[in-house]
# Entry
Amino acid sequence: MSSMEDIMGKPNNGKQRVLGAFRFEPATAIPVWSPGFEDGFVEQWRRYMGFDDTANAHPLSHYRNDTEEVMGDERFFFSQAGFMRREGEYEIHNDGWGCIVRTSSKTYFSQVIGRVLNEPADLDHIQFDPPSLESRYHDLDRQMDQVNKLGQCAFAKMGGIFIRSQFFRGEENLLIDMATDESFCDVLFDRVAAHLQEMALQNLRRSSTHNTGMIVNDDMAGLNGPVFSPRMFERYLLPRYQKIIMACREAGCRHFIFHSDGNIEPLLDLLIECGFEGINPIEPRCNPNLMELKRKYGRKLVLLGGVCNTRILQRNNRHEIQEHLRPLIELAREGGVVLGTASIPAETPPEAYDFMMRCIEDA
# Structure
């Protein structure tokens, strides 16, 4: 930020801008949520911007991105993760979540070919690696050095109870379990939640992010709604999230954000009951409208995201992008909003993304 911006009273770094949004203060500079990028987009963007391969340029450092998520390695079987063997064109890996996976350089997806948790009774004989292992956090200092260098607002990241259990058990198996075997799910979710809670406390302490907060990434929805009912969320996840948030709040954590792609609007009241204060990424294609959410929830929720990363940007129409952004920028000026997108797809025109970011930065 320039000295002139400081004189005019604009917050001079990302942390100030984002925490101002959490205090619902009017924004003189629009806070920006940092997205992820699918493989291929960054290379296209570098070519469009005219950067050569030696420049090591990246959208996250080129534009003003005010947030970052920092974490250690949460994998249940962290010490076992890694390459195992090659079979023809395939590589066989232990993914650290309790699965043996097969990958190929010719395809994007991987295939699970083995799992430690095949039957509910298997859980009795399984032990997770301790969250206290120092090697889980070897990269955390580097992450925080980068955050401090860029003046960003760092949030300690925690994987969610549902998605981490899904990695372990398999999505289809887990959803069937949730419908048919409550006793097993209680044991499984208790084990996973206890592991994640201790990981979260370790992350908060080691990264000193208590005064900003924590983001929980728990993808559990598609375009039309959650993959399970609100009743199931209330039965399985509500009490466990309340316990985790209480423990982290007692440790000094100030703010709690919930991330899930898709339409989680049917779960918002339950998420607030859990103790979450913010939601992300609020994808317009999934129908949760930023303006409507702001009217409905007011100061109950900080809204982080809300910019269309698919339909609007893909059409690469500057007028359409401006018209999409105009009301969102005005809403963000009122406070309680951090503008941004979900992950940027590889097929996104880099000129559209560049124009979008310049519109927000110049607002």
User: Anything to note?
Assistant: Confidence is low (pLDDT under 50) at residues 1-9.
